[in-house]
Amino acid sequence: MSMVRRNSSSPNKSANNQQGMTQGRGVDFDIQQELARLQEIIYDSFHIPLTQWTIVDEGKLLDQLEIIGDRIPEAIRKALAVLEQEQEILSEAEGYAQRIIQSAQQEAAQILDESGIIQQAQREANQLRQQVQHDCETIQSQTIGEVEQLRQITTNEIQQLRQQSLAECQKLEEGANEYAERVLTRLEDELGEMLTVIRNGRQQLYDNASSRGTSPPKQTPNLPKKRA
User: Fold this and answer.
1) Which keywords label this protein (predicted)?
2) Where exactly are the structural domains of the chain?
3) SS3 at position 47
4) Which phi and psi (to 5°) does residue 55 adopt?
5) Which of 20, 144, 173, 204 has the most CB within a 10 Å radius?
């Protein structure tokens, strides 16, 4: 997030400026770091072989989304803190301008006795005061607009990511059920074929024993029949 600031020769203002920029970068880094962690969770999840599906731990996914959601108010709070520091900087600038104006007025009163010169100095002081006030209002409006824009963008991105993740989880669950059904059906068919071979072998042994006049092999309980 970019910040618009008025240049000043005040050392305190430069230091506060640098601190505000550092906090802004910290806010962006925290959100980006948590989004990267969310991406790692998806990449590290179990991938179903021979498919394009990946099974994601819903608990981890929702927990990470909750962490990101918690970071949004923190980011706004930090941004408001930057705005407060900006207001302090503007107040210091205005106070600095006021001191310059007062010093100019005192020097003008001491050196110049003519009323015209004094009035001219007063007009210039009023113009400078109005200019400082205008600059302060402009910077404040820009900063508030940037904070609101960041909040809206971040909220929309989190909402879209949450909806997309839930949809993907539902698709993965449906795909996993279909895959399991196919595997179980194939195993059932293979077991049915094996049972058929076993029954035929038993029947052949029984028929051979009967044809030779020998006692047929002891009957064992029938194996379960293949389901229709």
Assistant:
1) Cell cycle, Cell division, Coiled coil
2) 11-185
3) strand
4) -90, 120
5) 20
